[in-house]
Fold:
Amino acid sequence: MAIDKFVTLKTTCVPLPVENVDTDQIIPARFLKATTRDGFGENLFRDWRYDKSDKPVKEFVLNNPAYSGKVLAAGKNFGSGSSREHAAWAIHDYGFKAVVSSFFADIFKNNALNNGLLPVQVSPEFLAKIFKEIDKNPETEVEINLEMQKITLLSTGESENFEISPYKKKCLLNGYDDIDYLLSIKDKIEAFEAGKSI
Amino acid sequence: MGKTLFDKVWDSHVVSQIEGGPSVLYIDRHLVHEVTSPQAFAGLDRRGISVFRPQNTVATPDHNVPTVNQDLTIQDKLSRMQVEKLKENTKKHGINHYGLNHPYQGIVHVIGPELGLTQPGMTIVCGDSHTSTHGAFGCVAFGIGTSEVEMVLATQCILQPKPKRMRITVDGKLKKGVGAKDIILYIISKISASGATGYFVEYAGSAIRNLSMEGRMTICNMSIEMGARGGHIAPDATTFEYIKGREFAPKGDEWEKKLAYWKNLFTDDDAVFDLELNYDAADIEPMITYGTNPGMGVGITGSIPKLDEIEESTKASFMKSMKYMDFEAGSNILGKTVDYVFVGSCTNGRIEDLRAFAKFVEGKKKADNIVAWIVPGSRQVEAQAKAEGLDKVLEAAGFVLRQPGCSACLAMNDDKIPEGNYAVSTSNRNFEGRQGPGARTMLASPITAAAAAITGKVTDPREFL
Structure:
């Protein structure tokens, strides 16, 4: 089954300059009770986004009409904590196609990639520049080119390359799915099992 | 060059290597719970395939279950649906399922070891980040997302990039009142909540070696809290003794064969790690956290860092954390008010944890201002506690032993710490809202939790030892 393809993206960003954004903030545990993958965007950053009487918190960036776009730019160690893939689903379901940070937690990175959500790891300096430019002008755009593995800050023209495994890059560019690949090598898996001594 | 324990286990499970990409890793044991599996089972249905190796898969509901009246229908409709869905999915695919009220039900990371399902040298995954717990047996065990759960259900394999190797050595003798939980909170406070991201950690040294299996599980459990892919400890006589005779442990000739293999699971003397860290056990005090990630911990007689001690780039996050906790930078930890005490979770919900808590509170009384939830990690832990009369000791001191589940560790069931309240908790995460919206969590060991439960405030447990 195919995942969303990712090729290039030109968009404004939503800035969240907070470090160690854990998956409990992205989607609190009490919203994990669904048995489908849909609708988690509604509760993305629930407890930062709404107060206890479910009114939007004005200061929170998702409630600020000045900011929009398909890229979430966040502080270092984004997606730490729980392995809940619901965090990646929530971000994707809300409408983001990529998350830019200076550092991602491992499991979140895998979960994002498995859902066509591109984690773009940049240097702390480049991330600081993105935040600074958005602060000056919320209309600031970035362009992400997966084939070139390059992110460009369009207001200044500065760019930086980012890492991604060639395998995952191919999957995202083509919308390939890991499970289809594994199913295609089932004979190898069975041979491995047969040769396992312990 | 010799191999690390990690390399030995990982390499022996590689089915194939994708060029410029991840390894196809074979998984020996797949543990499944109700929250992260329904979408994976639905994925199999969409593909029109069934579970490839149901015999390598075990399921139990734990995250959502109530910790009282488990014999009655679950009141929360959505929780009930997830628990029922797990039962339905496992039945359909022929997977062993220990449902509510089954004598083997419990937190998935507690039941794996206690049933002998967790064995040295295995690869173990589960859709839960605390799967690292099983590393205590010399496994390569790690948490995965739901797409990966589907991958393992479909093919018994997972695509994983090989992490780097780190060894953390803790040598020397622990001081009185200091245990496994304090060791791991100390390590995380030193290297931060992201300090081991990209690594798989081996814990070594005399202080680790001298721990019981349950203490080792507490250490490995929290590997993820410093960002590590997983953490493990080479198996030894303590490990083999623990496994022997358990329900799914190998028996007879099979035991001898496995034992011979397990004895080779150690890091060779000339093996090289990408990073080595060393700590002295004597430097560790009873630990407690003051902030909103597990790296924000300090010795209990210490104080919260002052703002000028915090790195510039981290200051905003630190201040956000202080505001959430309503703590002053630079203030002392001792004497802070506590409202709730939670003992339980896959970190500290095993029998030794309940024994330590019960022994501490024996002959004392719970403070009036404290609400305490004492939650065994499994049905078997609950039964053992009762067989040892721990429930009676707890009752005499004003505590009640509840029924098993993840409970207030992540507050998916009704066990939620109310907004603004402070909890001393033996669990693993102090994130904002983790134990309930607005809840303020301080992570600590079972005896530090016991000291708080007795005095009603943050207290050095050594005052009572």
